[in-house]
Amino acid sequence: MYVEQFVMAYKVDQDRIRAILPDGYISLRPVMRINAEIRQSGNGEIVYVELNTPVEAEGRRGWLNIGHWDSNDSDISFTRNDRTVTVSSSFLMLTYTGTEITGGCPAEKDNDGCFYISADETVFVPAREIKENKEFCDCEFAWLFSEDDAKGRSIGKTLPAFREKSENTYEKKAFTPENAAALSCQQVLGAYIVRFES
Q1: Sequence-distant (≥ 6) Cβ neighbours of residue 113 within 8 angstroms
Q2: pLDDT band at 108 (very low <50, low <70, confident <90, very high)
């Protein structure tokens, strides 16, 4: 299967992330990450999207999956125009424009894998090693669950995000994509595309 993976991260209030995390998960950085993939195989193309945040749990550091969707069971689709790819649905709009500048991603060096929580169990999927270079992107996004959801645009460079001390305690909210999408974007931290065989 050939995969085009489009990744972007944005900064949010870390105390607000802490207020939606399930028990046992520690927020590592004030970051939300959207991972969109166009997966091509002999059966055609599938668009897959995840919303994650970096956590530590069970002695591992990685991404906690908040929600995931694919074009088999949702209205996610994509369009391509020269160097720009737009992934859209009734609840999300993402636009990536490749810059032809390549490099690595430091955040991926601190990633054991991804936690997926369901009603029955938690599954940990180890990180897959991707050796291909990433192409940095300009990007724009907007969550569309409600009119006040997070939205933002990149500023042409990659910015770091560091763990913040807890300063505020917010009312605990359910661990849902809708509550995560409602956390305001303070700054888009960066975006890239990577293409690989899986």
Answers
A1: 60, 62, 63, 124, 125, 126, 127
A2: low
